[in-house]
Hints:
Elements: H1 2-10, H2 16-50, H3 64-82, H4 87-103, E1 113-117, H5 123-131, E2 140-142, E3 149-154, E4 159-165, H6 176-185, H7 188-191, E5 192-195, E6 210-212, E7 219-221, E8 226-228, E9 231-233
Parallel strand pairs: 1-2
Antiparallel strand pairs: 1-3, 3-4, 4-5, 6-7, 8-9
Helix pairs in contact: 3-5, 4-5, 4-6
The chain binds zinc ion (2 copies).
Amino acid sequence: MKQGADLYLTKPLVPMKLLKAVAGFIAKHLLLRYEREERRQLRKAAVMMNSKPVPALPRSGTNGEKMEEALQKDWEKCIDFHGHQCPGLAIGFRVAFAARKRLEITSAADEELVCVTENDACGIDAIQFLLSCTLGKGNLIYRDRGKQAFSFFLREQGKKLRIRLIRPFNKETGDRNAYQQEILTLPDEEIFSFSEPAYDLPVKARIFKTVTCEQCGETTAEAKIRLHDGKKLCLDCTPEYLRRW
Ligand SMILES: [Zn+2]
Ligand SMILES: [Zn+2]
């Protein structure tokens, strides 16, 4: 009996090496599963923290339900494009729709619609996304005034419209979420003033000759080249004082 037990201990039915390997495999697998689940939970929490519920948008148009759904989708797409939702994005969103309505346009395939933005805040992202006025196409021009105002020009028809926010956010007492909701839901006339821009239609974007800077060797548009000591230099290589001439 004793002999038999000894025999069993020294020669197990399943080799110890294999047992250890199986146990190790199970432990590793369980740990991986645990880590995966933990990561999943963290991701879920992060998503929940970042995305407050998207507020309902006003109904407009004749087919109420459908219009509301379409607006909601556009708003969500703007949030995706911009990266977050905020009152500034809501301003741009409403500006884009007000411009569409008043200028009877959808979006700009080329340069027939030009937007001149007087700020570089969040709202311009909604305008870029919804009206296709983009820096790359040359139909988005930044006129740095720090004002919540946007002008639109229709080249062909000669139409122009300036939309300016008349319901500013009160930084001291205002609630951002409530303000965003106001911007998204109030009628156009309660949040914007509409007028003719005091400035003219900007010239069409030009394609300039390419010139090589004689100092750094990089190429740039001819219009951005400066002459310095008889050399053609790019703006990065031109001494600062010359740029004020
Ligand atoms: Zn923003
Ligand atoms: Zn240079």
